[in-house]
Structure formats: C-alpha cells, structure tokens
Design brief:
Blueprint lengths: L2 H18 L4 H9 L5 H8 L6 E3 L22 E8 L2 E8 L10 H17 L3 E5 L10 H16 L6 E5 L2 E3 L4 H4 L3 E5 L4 E3 L3 H8 L5 H5 L1 H7 L5 E3 L2 H14 L38 H8 L5 E4 L7 E8 L2 E8 L10 H16 L4 E7 L6 H6 L1 H14 L4 E10 H6 L9 E4 L4 E3 L3 H8 L1 H6 L3 H16 L3 H5 L5 E2 L5 H12 L17
Parallel strand pairs: 3-4, 4-5, 5-7, 6-8, 7-9, 12-13, 13-14, 14-15, 14-16, 15-17
Antiparallel strand pairs: 1-2, 2-3, 10-11, 11-12
Helix pairs in contact: 4-5, 12-14, 16-18
C-alpha cells in the first residue's frame, strides 16, 4: 500500500469519525441528560447486531444564507440506512437532535426520500425515528420543499410498505404531517411531542397558557386526539414495541405476514369461555380477556389501547398466523360504537386489508351511541367509515357474535351481508334490530296502552321478543350465521374457518380509488 493510499484512508477515517461523533460530546451528554438516546444509539437497539449499513453518511447541505456555508452538520442531521430486524430487511431514518437540533433541510429530506424510495422498490418496511426542532429556517423554501417531497412519498407508498414512526423528541409544524400519514405512531412519554403550533404561538394568538407536554405529549395524542397508536416509557421501550409490531406484519403488500410455529394446540378447548359471559345482559365482562383465551399463547398486541376504549383493535396470532382483531368492549360504554371508535376501527381494518392480514371481529354491542353530541359530530359519516372499510376489505373476514348484535352496529361489526366470509355465533348471541325492551315498546305500543295491566303485558311482550330474536337461531335459519358454536370450542372452530379461507381471492370492480366518507 503506497503512502498516498494510506493518506486517503486516514482522511476517510477522520471524516467518518467526525460524522459519527454527531454534535460532539457536550451535545450528546445533554441528550442523555434529557433521558434520550442519540440517533445512532437508537439504531443500534433497533437492528440485529452487525446488520446495519448506513447510507449517505457524507451528504452535506448546500445552504449559503445566514453564514450557513461555514456550518458543518454531520450527516445533515439524519442517519439513514438499512439492516435486519429479527432477520428481516428494514429501512430507517433517525434524526440527530445533537446536530443543529436535527432541523430539516433539503439535503436531509432528500436522504429520507431516497431511503423511502428504495424501501418501496425492494418491498421492506420503513421506520422513522423523529427528534427534530422542525424546519431549518435558514433554508427557507428549500426546507418546505423537502417536507413536500416526503409527504408525497408517504402518500404514494401508503398500502405498499408498512410505514412506522416514533416521536422521540420534538416534532412541530409541518414536521407532524409525515408521521400523521404513516401507518403507526409511537410516542415516548416526557420526550416525544407533536403539535402544529407550540405553546408560545398559542399564547400569543389566543392567550391560552399550556405546557408542551399537555399540548402535544404522548398521553395527549394516545388518549385524547387519537393521533398516536402507542405510548412508550422511554426510548428502549419504544424500540422494543416497534420490533414487536414488525413481527406481526408482512414486509410489503406483496407478501403475507410471517407465520410462526405455534406451540399452542389448535384443538385446545377453553372451558372458561362457557362462563365468561354473565347471565344478565346488564352485567359486563372484559372482552380482551375473552380474546386472550382464544388466541395463541394468550398473547395480544393492542393498538390505541387508551383511545376509544369502547372498541378494541389488536394484533394476535391464531394457529401461528397474524390476525387483526376488532372487538367491542362491553366494560366501557357498554361497547357502543361512537365517532372515535368508528374512526379507530376503520383505520385499523383498512391497514390490515392493505397488508393481507385476515380480520377477526368479536361482536357485543347494543348499537351506535345515541345523543345530539354524536349526531352533531357526524356519527352517520364516521359510522359509515367502518361499514365502508369492512365492505372494501378482501382479506379473509371472520365474525364471532358473542352477545348483543343490534341494529346498524350489527352490520358495522362485519355482519354476514357486509361480506363476512364466515359468521360464528355463540348460543348467547342476540341478533336483532334493537333490544327486546325497546322493540316491545314500539311494536306493541298500542296493545300495552290499552291493556288492563300495561306493565304485565309489556313484560310478556318483552319476553316474547327475547324468545324470538335474542338467540342466534333465527339468523342461522336464514344462513346469516354459518356456525353456532359452544363457547369452549371457539378456538378450534375459528382455526378451521381461518385455514379454509386462507387462500381466498376476491377482486373488486376496476376503479381509480374508493371515495371513503372521510
């Protein structure tokens, strides 16, 4: 090796070391003091050891305004590349807050866009680890142009590859819209924040005083706004949850989800299911506990657990296969469907359908939530999203009716005529337009009013309606329930149904795209 080659290698190593040092020891220490890991530390946690390959490490900005020509920004404030997570290819971009606050300039955006383009071409998930002070003001319109390039790719690759983002630091202004267009948002408590306008701007514009955490923190967006899907205790917890989510997903829409070997017998009988539903229709139980008794190893991975808890959305495995599960939660609002629950379910259904994940629905709902607040907020439009999402989905769809399945909510929870492939009902199922009390009061109103003993007549008519409709047999007699199943046998019956449908193919009419009632 001659000296000139040795000198060039030495120069390369110096440059590389400077870039890998990010913002320097002081900035890194400050990051750690805030309870945050650096971009490179986060990447090391995410990928299988020795598999990460960084790309565009030497990219630099071209801005010359406001003295920026004298400012060096290592890797232009973002680390990009690819590697393996549990042996599967994944692409990543991680903003580096230690380098000028991870501010977004055009070069940074182009690095991110390149990663997204390649991920889409090869069919691999892309993960964004966000920690940025926002747009790089010195670059002006170029910075905004960078955001636009990212947004376009978020849209174009939606439904093509899984797009996952983690809010691990500040994310404000235009920077929030890329995460909002991705499939899942993880947020770290106390560190991750999202808002269009920060507390100072709000105070100046409206006089309201609010902290950054209250305005846009992890609990705010997971519990109140519904913008986020997972709340995490710290960076390490966030990375582990992302890896768990990836284990349920295919790498792209060209694949089916990975099937894991299940040690949980497909023939398992669960006697507890025979007694989990109370005899009284006015008493509640925990739907998630019911689901855990059925799925593999009692393991579930819940999505948006704090938002609209009257409906459950989660991933689980049945006979080793990933499934997206939607279920009413009778212990909260009696399992009624409302505006937020409809939005939550519709988005989850559409994601699962886009990525070939079969849908399993557990029904126990008295209907849509009544009241002027819901009507004024648009429950008709929001409820229609759920109906639309189920009707549009072409993956295998299995519905299990546990107890109440009333009115429009019966259909909104993937009733037979909304293209459910198989409907399984427990003997406790009640499938009707409405509950027996309300139905009797309407159907027999005149008879009750004219009776010698109105209350006795009313109770008789209620009992008559319950005998006729508060069971699965009228629906089964019409072919609207395919299987009536003893609760303890639900797992083996469900597995047989799933395996019979796994190769299902269904083509929708040719169109540019649907016009879902947004």
């Amino acid at each position: 090796m001659n000296n000139s080659t040795a000198d060039k290698i030495k120069l390369f190593r110096q440059k590389e070391a400077k870039i890998e040092a990010m913002g320097g020891p002081q900035k890194i220490e400050k990051q750690h003091q805030q309870g945050k890991l650096t971009a490179r530390e986060r990447i090391n946690l995410l990928f299988d050891p020795g598999t990460f390959q960084e790309t565009d490490k030497f990219v630099t900005h071209q801005c010359t305004y406001f003295g920026m020509d004298k400012v060096e920004i290592p890797a232009d404030g973002v680390v990009t590349g690819y590697g393996e997570v549990h042996g599967r290819l994944v692409y990543v971009f991680a903003q580096d807050f230690t380098s000028v606050g991870g501010a977004m300039g055009l070069a940074q955006a182009e690095k991110i866009c390149k990663v997204m383009d390649i991920a889409a071409q090869v069919g691999a998930p892309v993960i964004g680890l966000n920690d940025s002070g926002g747009a790089r003001i010195q670059e002006g319109i170029n910075s905004l142009s960078g955001y636009g390039k990212m947004f376009l790719r978020n849209i174009r690759y939606s439904g093509v590859i899984p797009q996952i983002t983690a809010i691990m630091g500040p994310t404000a202004g235009g920077a929030v819209y890329s995460p909002a267009m991705m499939d899942f948002i993880f947020m770290v408590k106390g560190a991750g924040q999202m808002f269009i306008t920060g507390p100072e701007v709000i105070k100046a514009a409206t006089g309201e005083i609010i902290s950054s955490e209250e305005l846009g923190g992890a609990l705010t967006h997971n519990k109140i706004s519904g913008n986020a899907h997972f709340v995490c205790d710290n960076d390490q917890d966030c990375i582990e949850k992302i890896k768990t989510l990836l284990s349920y997903l295919p790498s792209s829409n060209r694949e089916t989800p990975p099937r894991l070997e299940s040690l949980d017998s497909p023939e398992r009988i669960e006697d507890k299911l025979n007694t989990i539903v109370p005899d009284s229709a006015h008493r509640v139980y925990r739907m998630k506990q019911l689901i855990q008794l059925i799925v593999d190893n009692n393991e579930v991975f819940e999505v948006q657990s704090l938002y609209a808890p009257n409906i459950i959305t989660l991933f689980a495995r049945v006979n080793g296969r990933s499934m997206g599960i939607i279920a009413n939660e009778p212990s909260f609002m009696s399992g009624c469907l409302d505006v937020n629950a409809s939005d939550k379910a519709a988005r989850f259904i559409r994601f699962c359908d886009a990525f070939n994940i079969p849908l399993l629905t557990f029904t126990d709902t008295p209907g849509f939530l009544p009241g002027k607040t819901q009507e004024f907020t648009g429950i008709i439009r929001h409820g229609a999203k759920m109906l639309f999402a189920y009707g549009e989905a072409t993956v295998p769809k299995i519905t299990v009716i546990i107890r109440k399945a009333y009115g429009g909510a019966y259909m909104a929870m993937c009733g037979k005529d909304l293209a459910a492939d198989q409907v399984i009902a427990w003997p406790t199922a009640q499938i009707a337009v409405m509950g027996a009390q309300g139905a009797a009061n309407i159907i027999h109103r005149k008879e009750i009013l004219e009776a010698t003993d109105p209350e006795t007549t009313r109770q008789e008519k209620i009992q008559e309606y319950e005998v006729l409709f508060n069971n699965p047999y009228i629906a089964a007699g019409r072919g609207l329930v395919d299987i009536v199943c003893e609760p303890k046998n639900t797992r083996p019956v469900l597995i047989k149904a799933l395996e019979s449908l796994i190769n299902k193919q269904e083509l929708l009419p040719t169109k540019k795209h649907c016009n879902i009632p947004l």
